[in-house]
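Build the 3D complex.
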Amino acid sequence: MTATAYRALEAKFRKIASLDGAMAVLHWDSATMMPAGGAETRAEQLATLAEIRHQAMTDPTIPDLAAAAASAIDVADGWRHGNLREALRQWRHANALPPDLVVRRSKANSACEMAWRSARGNNDFKAVAPLLETVIAIAVEVAAAKAAALGLAPYDALLDSYDPDLRGAEVDRLFADLKNFLPGFLDRVLAGQTKAPAAIVPAGPFRQADQRALAERLLDALGFDRHHGRLDVSHHPFTGGVPADVRITTRYDESNFTRSLMAVIHETGHALYEMGLPAEWREQPVGSARGMTMHESQSLLMEMHACRSIEFLSYLAPHARAAFAGTGAAWEIANLKRVYLKVERGLIRVDADEVTYPLHVILRYDLERALLAGSLMVADLPQAWREGLGRLVGVVPPDDKDGCLQDIHWYGGDFGYFPTYTLGALAAAQLYAAAKRAVPEIPAAIGAGRFVPLVGWLRANVHGVGSRLSTQEILAAATGAPLGTEAFKRHLTARYLGE
Amino acid sequence: MTATAYRALEAKFRKIASLDGAMAVLHWDSATMMPAGGAETRAEQLATLAEIRHQAMTDPTIPDLAAAAASAIDVADGWRHGNLREALRQWRHANALPPDLVVRRSKANSACEMAWRSARGNNDFKAVAPLLETVIAIAVEVAAAKAAALGLAPYDALLDSYDPDLRGAEVDRLFADLKNFLPGFLDRVLAGQTKAPAAIVPAGPFRQADQRALAERLLDALGFDRHHGRLDVSHHPFTGGVPADVRITTRYDESNFTRSLMAVIHETGHALYEMGLPAEWREQPVGSARGMTMHESQSLLMEMHACRSIEFLSYLAPHARAAFAGTGAAWEIANLKRVYLKVERGLIRVDADEVTYPLHVILRYDLERALLAGSLMVADLPQAWREGLGRLVGVVPPDDKDGCLQDIHWYGGDFGYFPTYTLGALAAAQLYAAAKRAVPEIPAAIGAGRFVPLVGWLRANVHGVGSRLSTQEILAAATGAPLGTEAFKRHLTARYLGE
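Done.
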């Protein structure tokens, strides 16, 4: 009977996985294929599926089924016990919010996000400020409701939605260390950079079809399985779909191929994680990717570590030259390295290099904690942003468009998400260092365009684990240490100062 | 309270429309975009949505809600009364089958369809015959169950699933007339054709990109709204999606552009019907397309009547020459007309011209009635096919691959569908003649690439009616007569004999 309970629970979550998969394809279609006139109908389709999904996820029989199932499972069966744990975690999150709050949040976030699009275009923060105030007020309510249901501090309850078990105290500790290290380090890197030749970005035009052909060659080299995935174009690059059918996107700039190419590699890192999730558990909670930190670690490991390495750039250079008939100094490996490792004090997070990126994230983390705590008013956000960026990165945005209006997250109601970008960077450094210790041939193999040794190690140590272990347990098992800043700092120091 | 009942009913059907729309996009994706490795997961997604849809459609509260709603609606409100009628029709169809029969049917049809794919490839009818026997036995059960629930004869209950209110007696009457007319007519057409110059198919290669550009030019001319639809490639051309986002497909043969181009026009006829459905009723039963006969009439009206007319071919010729840099006799209007109006005794239904096509359909109609009645055994089907095609069309297939294995329909469990192809051809002839009587400028406008007069008439008389009227009512209102063979015979006689 308890085995029956377990099977019943699996069937419920298999249905939820199917709904999630259907929604993922519809989202992908919206961003890549859908004609503009289909938007309204698509929104209704997605709302209908989301409502059905919510009903399935808040099914009141789930906790009793889980309790009955637990007693029948062998204590050594980590997968099934993990599956019950993750199923209950998802159930608790879904049940934490009263239905009217879910509806109010959805409406407030949609309205604010819509207003943000034009406010950013018009550089008009005041136009969106009242809506942002509402979004924040509702986020505070959400945090309180989740905190009560989950027994967590309010901000921790938000973090937990994106990254299970992540807590603010941990973020504080890691970010304090980076805040201490990075500004001085950045000064040294920039001083060194001025002494080297300037990076020359190869001059285009680069036909979209040629960029795509090169990208597909790299997909194959990295191990992206095109039998189970495809590459398309969207306004913002993303990874969607389901593990058996992963959809990645990029956009092509015909005047500069370098950024689109690295975006493809970034998304391929995400895609390899999804493709490598444990095949027999993919439709269950325990078979999902672990959380945003681990997901971002996989994209950054590929983009920042494997594919900005001198080995990879040496492999890339002749392929890039052949793809675009490139000749001259701009196409030499040493120059490509300068292009791909250029560091600068910039205004925009998504354009930032790996040295300054954490500073952009730390700014957002500090500000969102203050906004949620009520110690920073929305009206004062633009000024706080200018001051903070000046202090942390050393530049001050001339306007809000390139300041506090640049990112969609807060305007869409996402609080507690930003830190995972930088925690992912820390995890990536730690995992890549461990992979190279365990499989010393990895850099040389990458230099030959062979990613099998690296991806094999990631499959065994990260991808194939799914959500059976926590983020910290995965890192401890794979790297011998909990999440920390040491590997990241060592990586930066070696790469940018040669020390 | 009764107004509340009506609103509650609308909400239920709006949800069903959203589920149908989500499934339509997923089906389209499967045929156009999905990597092969995604098939299994996609099947689970679709099965989950189909199950949820079936639950919603068999909701036991629907009849009482409809009864309560009916008493509150103004008798003159044809849309709302029509909506209740169509809602109940759909509910009755969905409820007619016991759940175990639905499951058995689904499994038997899937298994047989799968076996058919290899049986056709191997020209091995015996390999699929036992599975086809099971499919037929289940179709007989389905027909009996639907007949009992709907108060119809068994075959009529099957027809009613594809084309509401269509009855076998009507099909018998119309097909008897065609059986009488077409063979002698065909002899005369072929005799005349031998005296004319032979049709020269323009020689390629025709680049896919050039074919696509020409197809898109024609989409625009015909009035396909690309803000609400798109054209892609699939193995078999089809029309999918939803009215606000219609997805049509074709496939390109680089050695012959003429068939792909006409396939695009055929699907555009379907698409214009969907795009022209009444905007405020699209998500309700009364706002759906009327049935397969009307749908096929719209594709055939565009393909056979509007776009094989001398006016359209005169418009097309210079565009085709420009698209493919065509020169010489093959590109002259008179030759294009011979290519597009060539009649021949062929083996394959989907390749048939408009003169022989009904004979292919009549063969299938006679055979499927005999198979369902038990008067024809599956083992005797190949021989019955050869005899029937020889008698009706005058050719005998050398093997079953190009004989009784050529169409997917029966092997996938579709009985009662074939007749609608030819009823659609009859309706198309009748509607096009009526359109030209009502708006005499239509042919000249088409000669100038202007489809607005034709499509405007179709919007007013067919598309915009949705399912408010029956097929016969739509035809009577638009053409002044019920569905008949006269317009079709007059059209063929004028076009092929010049009489």
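Chain B has a mean pLDDT of 96.
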